[in-house]
Amino acid sequence: MSKNLTKREEDYSKWYNELVVKADLAENSGVRGCMVIKPYGYAIWEKMQTELDRMFKETGHSNAYFPLFVPKSMFEAEEKNAEGFAKECAIVTHYRLKNDPEKPGKLIVDPSAKLEEELIVRPTSEAIIWSTYKNWVQSYRDLPLLINQWANVVRWEMRTRLFLRTAEFLWQEGHTAHATKTEAIEESEKMMNVYADFAQNFMAIPVIKGLKTETERFAGAEETYCIEALMQDGKALQAGTSHFLGQNFAKAFDVKFANAEGKQEYVWGTSWGVSTRLMGALVMTHSDDNGLVLPPNLAPIQVVIVPIFKTDEELERITSVVNELVTRFKKLRISVKYDNRTTQKPGFKFAEWELKGVPVRIAVGPKDLENGTFEVARRDTLTKGVISKEIIVDHINDLLETIQNDLFGKALNYRNTHITEVNSFEEFKEVLENKAGFISAHWDGTPETEEKIKDLTKATIRCIPLNRALEEGKCVLTGAKSTGRVLFAKAY
Length: 492
Fold this sequence. Notes:
It is a single chain. The protein is an alpha+beta fold. About 35% of the residues lie in helices and about 30% in strands. The chain is built from 14 helices and 26 strands. Strands 3, 9, 10, 11, 12, 13, 16, 22, 23, 24, 25 and 26 form a 12-stranded mixed beta sheet that branches. A 5-stranded mixed beta sheet has the order 18-17-19-20-21, sandwiched between helices. The chain has a 3-stranded antiparallel beta sheet with strand order 4-8-5. A hairpin with a 5-residue loop joins strand 20 (about 375-380) and strand 21 (about 385-390). Helix 2 (about 40-60) crosses helix 6 (about 180-200).
């Protein structure tokens, strides 16, 4: 099997696009800006969903589902949110087509079927959900309301890229209502930590927790918490956000509750979400010039077994041993595939599963049967070893954990060596041009300076790290007083 992938060093963007397609994760569709997620790609997304869904439920959340369409007047109710998403909205204006009398077989919009009120195809669901919460919340006994939905959303992006930015994408969005400001802020922080936990322990991606600046904040939020990751090309990727909404949506949709004293108060809200953009992060953090590298905790197939044989009798003997091995793996909940196709040679299979990022490959031939051994290859390091039949299952079980930890360690080392402190704008530009990664620099706190740096360099403030040390300094651009460093980077 020929991979013919562009090298990362030659053209990282081209390498990424080719890999997503050739590894059977996704492809462009017949709809401009929309993608088809293929079975192998969707299997990874399903594993992400499963783990995240478990984590949400463990923190007290329940799943529900809300409409795809939002009446325009409802969408406009919270002004900042509406303004923030206005340019990305797709709008439904009619509900029927009819035959074109001048062109048989063609359809045209039926002008008599115009909607009384236009419908927005949801770019996010705050409006429809908060209009619903008005009916669900009456008393402090109804709070907190902790709801999540798995859904698709539409944001009419002009420049699209598989997984990273598409006109339609899959995600989850949590929307919660609370009796107090303190509870809502705690919820926002808790969900940021859930996302960080998932990114680090399942995706093997180290992240930095922080706050967005006012300019980068979610439209309609009072505070946006985020986790930021660093890709292998030195660009940042926002991997998840959690928003403290204050009482903005409660006031816009008149969501009140009677407190213990019977007094009416507005609830306090949050929303939080991650999307199929995480698939892009997974590909870009770990993969190499040979294809995908998947962390075992999210790999749809953790172990692939390839038989090496010349005759049907040899395949039969190998299959007998492999079937027993597969049963033992499954008891340990290790996902395993026995690739016994007779239509492809072992070399083709090795290349295919390497491209698809299966963490461990086992090869077994007649000589292995004689010796009571298996050849074991690691996808992440491309190293091989011979392991005896007696210890193979325990070895693979331990090896999967080792690979998971090693991938995280490698990504963490890259991230840590690509955070650079600078104290002048010349240094800032030099690092951005020649090293990339996160740039830790003082900023005077004004949107004007933030915007000017963006215009001059295309670097944005990715976050104000939650764990940053307070230190007096001078803004890297203006020289004005600063109380601490923030992280800049070019980003996806």
